[in-house]
Design brief:
The complex is a heterodimer of chains A (about 120) and B (about 110).
Chain A lengths: L3 E4 L2 E4 L5 E7 L5 E8 L3 E8 L6 E2 L6 E3 L9 E3 L8 E8 L10 E2 L3 E5 L1
Parallel strand pairs in A: 2-11
Antiparallel strand pairs in A: 1-3, 3-8, 4-5, 4-9, 5-6, 7-8, 9-10, 9-11
Chain B lengths: L1 E4 L3 E5 L4 E9 L5 E6 L6 E6 L3 E5 L2 E6 L4 E6 L8 E8 L5 E3 L3 E6 L1
Classes of the chains: A mainly beta (about 120), B mainly beta (about 110).
Chain lengths: ~120, ~110
């Protein structure tokens, strides 16, 4: 089934440790996104990529980094985790470009707890 | 940036109609979206408005007024499976999508 795969699905991480969340899509979408979702705050954009080789900062980029070496993969790295990064993380993709609805397709999400 | 407001919670009875309002302020507008999110699941696309007016899709309709910065999602003939969070999202001139905090709809029997 075509879509977006996120891994891991959940993780508990000690503060100060690093981790990378993986995101892979098989829809050949140009644009990819990372959001975090916190109770009462909704989905907030961390980083995005409009096409392979380019990335941009979203609303809450501090403490996170991304790369987009190819069309399919968009990993999110936390270099030194802090408890405020405890959240549910969603990767998403869309066809990209200026025309049409460009609907986002979301991965299943990843729950991260930083202790 | 975007400022998107929607009610936190709504409750309605099975078979009834519920209207979820969304107001927004944006530095650049390029479309308004509604997503549905069941507890513990990913958001899924419901509707898209870029021009003023009503878009109807089965039991769900979405309305947009760009001059008022206002949209609503109308859910008709409510079913128990409609209990979920409904997310209003605005796309800016850079094609990034910003979300409101979501409205949790509870459908009672």
């Amino acid at each position: 089934t075509a879509g977006i795969t996120q891994a891991p699905t959940s993780q508990i991480l000690a503060a100060g440790r690093s981790m990378t969340q993986r995101c892979t899509q098989d829809m050949r979408h140009n644009a990819m996104y990372w959001y975090r979702q916190d109770l009462g705050l909704g989905l907030r954009l961390i980083h995005y990529s409009n096409t392979a080789g380019t990335t941009g900062k979203g609303e809450v980029p501090d403490g996170y980094s991304v790369s987009r070496a190819n069309t399919d993969d968009f990993p999110l790295t936390l270099a030194s985790a802090v408890p405020s990064q405890t959240s549910v993380y969603f990767c998403a993709s869309s066809p990209g470009g200026p025309s049409g609805a460009n609907v986002l397709t979301f991965g299943a999400g990843s729950r991260l707890t930083v202790l | 940036g975007q400022n998107i407001d929607q009610p936190t919670e709504m409750t309605a009875t099975e078979g009834a109609i519920v209207q979820i309002n969304c107001t927004y302020q944006t530095s650049g507008f390029n479309g308004l979206f509604w997503y549905q999110q069941h507890a513990g699941e990913a958001p899924t696309f419901l509707s898209y408005n870029v021009l003023d007016g009503l878009e109807e899709k089965g039991r769900f309709s979405s309305f947009l007024s760009r001059s008022k910065g206002y949209s609503y999602l109308l859910l008709k003939e409510l079913q128990m499976k409609d209990s979920a969070s409904y997310l209003c999202a605005v796309r800016d001139s850079d094609y990034k999508l910003s979300f409101g905090a979501g409205t949790t709809v509870t459908v009672r029997a």
